[in-house]
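Many introductory courses stop at the sequence. We go one step further.
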Amino acid sequence: MLSPKHRAPNLPQASLQHQPMIFCRAFMTKMRSFVYRLHTWLGVIVALPILAWASSGLLYALPSVVEGGRALPIDATRVRITPPEALERANLFAGRQLPITALTLLVRDGRPTYQAIGGMGADSLLIDAETGEVRRTPPPGPLTRYFRQAHFLFFAGKWQVPLLVSLSFLACLSALTGIYLNLSLWRRR
């Protein structure tokens, strides 16, 4: 039963019995409105990194746009430097033991070349597989830089993992609010 403070004045007792149902409907309407607004804003927030990720992924379809995106066959007869020798030459070039996480043999500028990548892949060295000459990898062009930054969220630096976790949480919350809104819509029909 409602307290006298919450009762509508001058209403018969029968209409007071429907007041909790009216309150419940009003609450549910406000709740749906809040969830709808929340879902809309979550959609905008979550859509921005997904748009960047998806648009950078489109560059896979255009391998000539991304540097090193086209895979060319390697002429094994031209490879004179072994992988251990390439790693040794990279360490000598740097003057220290490098934290190399990947060594890839690829064709670059028409020559078989090892690419020694360390850490998160931001810095790498190129070792000519024929001559053993070592040089720094030149900075990437704007499209390749966009691809790497947007696709892997490298721009976030040390915040990369917390940003990915936060955006994943927001995406889950967006999906849950969408499910709630759809179920409430279907229930009304």
